[in-house]
Every structure is written in structure tokens, then in C-alpha cells.
Design goal:
The strands form two sheets. Strands 1-10-12-11-13-16-14-15 form an eight-stranded mixed β-sheet, with helices on both faces. Strands 3-2-9-5-6-7-8-4 form an eight-stranded mixed β-sheet, with no helix packed on it. The chain folds into two domains: 265 residues, Aminopeptidase (3-Layer(aba) Sandwich); 87 residues, no CATH class. The chain contains seven helices and 16 strands. A hairpin with a 4-residue loop joins strand 6 and strand 7. By secondary structure, it is α/β, with parallel strands linked by helices.
Length: 366
């Protein structure tokens, strides 16, 4: 791997986690801007589109969003969104003030019964395809270590019934066996913004995977192998693997042509090695991977894991495609929160992972 590729990866993560991309989500055109960025990178490397429709595959779905107001005061104290509190992703917007009734050590209900407040040691957010008829708020228990008695809230939600997103795809045609395909996938979406002042950067999850996807695309574009290599950046993973589900139901080439699929998600750490989902489903491939790793000492260890519906490999596996989902372990623990930022991402095993993917693919093609 060329020495300049790690700086490229760091630059890519820094770009995708910047304000312009607003958490690569559902407000301020975050996801669409990220899709454009990825498409432009793929074009700049000289990759071909997968079909005559171009580099993007569009699909739609409903989503609950929080584009504007996100304000909360507890006992007169103003709290910061993302750091001090989060609103549950399926919550209805509300503007009200009320007293709080304690239900148990962690839960309070408003006197009117339309707002629930709970205390949590860590605030992790998500995305929802539905909206509730009440409002749920989680508060960091380190922020308010006191009895809660009253609150003022002004939260605005917008339920979008037909949000349009795009999978971004390109390929390098194989030199001798173009109908045999190796696929790399990584989801580029994250959680987006909660209000108009707070967004979730998603450095490890999953700007790190996108950086690897693009690095590999750049490499294979310059060094075309025997097999065709397809690169797919999926949208809407965080809301239920919707991008990969849509692709497997509307594939742009026969899925039976896929010799192997690598799903890249959470690649920014690695000092404790990595885990392979589907390792127990494909023991021979896992054995090959471990043999390479033992010889080259790329990672401290590679842990096997069974089947799991926890990322974009899943719907391919369900269709009989041999697939591994690799994620790294150790390092920072920031996940689905405002602290998953580019600055603290260690990239511990990044270059070695790159080499591991190349070596495995070479073994597979030979």
C-alpha cells in the first residue's frame, strides 16, 4: 500500500464528518451531499458505473427527522442537545412546560402525561421510520445528578413520508474473468442531525469504512485484477439496512456471480484486532484469512463470530452470497453519539487491514 493512502483515508474521514455533510443523514441535505462526494471520488479514479442509469440507485422510505428546534430546560437549567440530552428518534415534537412526577429511580413522567424523561449513563442515538404520539427524552445522569421537578421543552420534528436516498456504486472490470465478482460494501449514512445546531459526525461509524472502500477503489482502478471488483456505498443502513435490502431485491448484476463480499464497517480501531461476522458460516474462507494474518502479522487477532443481521452483508448472506463483515476492536468507545469524531480516530490497523484485503482477494482469485 502506498504511504500516501493513510493520509487520504484521514482526509476522507475528516471531510465526511464535517458540517457540510451534517452527519450524513436526513436534514440539511447531509446524505445527498455525501453521495455526491463518493460518486465524484469514484469518477476521479476512473471507475465505471454498474449500469446505464449511472452511479446511483435511488429508493425511498419514511423517516422521522428533527430539522430545527431542540431546546430543553430542567429545573431552570438549560441542557445541551447531544451532550446533556437526546430526544428518542421516534418522538413527536412538542412545545410545553410542566412539572415532573417520579416513577422510579431512572424515570419521570410529565403531569400531563405527554412527555417521559429517563436518566442514562450514556446517550446513544438512532433513526426511526415511525413517529410516536408522545415525546421521550433521555438525560445524561452526570449532567443532572439532582431530583428533577420541572421542565421546559421546545422540540420540532418533521415526519418525512417519502425520503429519497441513493446507493452509490462503481466497478473495475476484471482482466480475464469479468463475470466473477468480488464486492466491497460500506454504508456511508449516519444519524444526521438532532435539531439545527447538533449533528452526529460518525467517524468510525462509518466514515472509516467509506475511506477504506474508496482507498481500495483507487488501488484496483490503477491495478485491475483478474476478477471484476464492485464497490457499493450503501445509504440507510442505520435505519434498518434499507439500502442493501433494496439492492439485493433489485440487483444490477446477477448475485450468483459474486465470488465473495466484504462489508466494511467500524474500521477506525484495531489494537485488539478484528471480528468477522459469518466466520462460522464460511470456515474455509476464515481459515484462509487467518493463515494470511498468521504469516503477515497484520492484526493481533481475528475473532470468529456467527451469523448476525447487524450490517449490510446480511441480505446478501440471506441470498446465498458468501460474505464477511469485518469490524475492528479496541481504541475509542464512541458510538452513535456526538463524540465519534475524526480527530480521535486512531486508525490503528488501517494500513494492515488494507493489505489483508488485497492478500485475501489475491488468494481467492488464484
Amino acid at each position: 500500500m502506498a504511504a500516501q493512502d493513510l493520509p487520504y483515508a484521514k482526509k476522507t474521514v475528516k471531510t465526511l464528518t464535517s458540517k457540510k455533510y451534517w452527519g450524513r443523514g436526513y436534514t440539511k441535505n447531509g446524505m445527498a451531499n455525501a453521495a455526491d462526494f463518493i460518486e465524484n471520488e469514484m469518477k476521479s479514479f476512473g471507475l465505471s458505473p454498474l449500469s446505464e442509469v449511472g452511479y446511483k440507485q435511488y429508493f425511498s422510505f419514511p423517516v422521522n427527522t428533527f430539522p430545527s428546534k431542540m431546546e430543553l430546560k430542567i429545573n431552570g437549567k438549560k441542557l445541551n442537545p447531544g451532550k446533556d440530552f437526546i430526544v428518542h428518534q421516534a418522538s413527536k415534537g412538542i412545545k410545553t412546560s410542566d412539572s415532573l412526577i417520579r416513577k422510579d429511580s431512572l424515570t419521570y413522567i410529565s403531569k400531563k402525561g405527554n412527555v417521559a424523561v429517563s436518566l442514562a449513563p450514556k446517550l446513544t442515538w438512532s433513526v426511526s421510520q415511525k413517529v410516536l404520539d408522545y415525546t421521550l427524552i433521555e438525560i445524561n445522569n452526570k449532567t443532572v445528578p439532582f431530583q428533577l421537578s420541572n421542565f421546559e421543552v421546545n422540540i420540532e420534528n418533521e415526519f418525512v413520508t417519502n425520503f429519497t436516498a441513493a446507493n452509490v456504486m462503481a466497478m473495475v472490470k476484471g482482466t480475464t474473468k469479468p463475470d466473477s465478482i468480488i464486492v466491497f460494501t460500506a454504508h456511508y449514512d449516519h444519524l444526521g442531525g438532532m435539531g439545527n445546531k447538533t449533528y452526529f459526525p460518525g467517524a468510525n461509524d462509518n466514515a472509516s469504512g467509506v475511506a477504506m472502500l474508496l482507498n481500495l477503489a483507487k488501488y484496483y482502478a490503477a491495478n485491475p485484477p483478474k476478477y471484476s471488483i464492485v464497490f457499493i456505498a450503501f445509504a440507510a443502513e442505520e435505519i434498518g439496512l434499507l439500502g442493501s435490502k433494496y439492492f439485493t431485491e433489485n440487483p444490477l448484476f446477477p448475485l450468483k456471480n459474486i465470488r465473495f463480499l466484504w462489508n466494511l464497517d467500524l474500521l477506525g480501531n484495531g489494537d485488539e484486532g478484528a471480528t468477522i461476522v459469518n466466520a462460522t458460516i464460511h470456515p474455509k474462507a476464515f481459515e484462509v484469512l487467518n493463515k494470511i494474518n498468521d504469516q503477515q502479522k497484520y492484526l493481533p487477532k481475528i475473532n470468529p463470530r456467527g451469523k448476525a443481521a447487524n450490517s449490510d452483508h446480511y441480505f446478501f448472506s440471506e441470498k446465498g452470497v458468501p460474505a464477511f463483515f469485518l469490524y475492528t476492536q479496541g481504541g475509542i468507545t464512541a458510538y452513535h453519539d456526538v463524540y465519534d469524531i475524526a480527530k480521535t480516530l486512531p486508525f490503528t490497523s488501517y494500513e494492515n487491514l488494507f493489505r489483508l484485503f488485497l492478500d485475501f482477494n489475491l488468494e481467492l482469485m488464484n
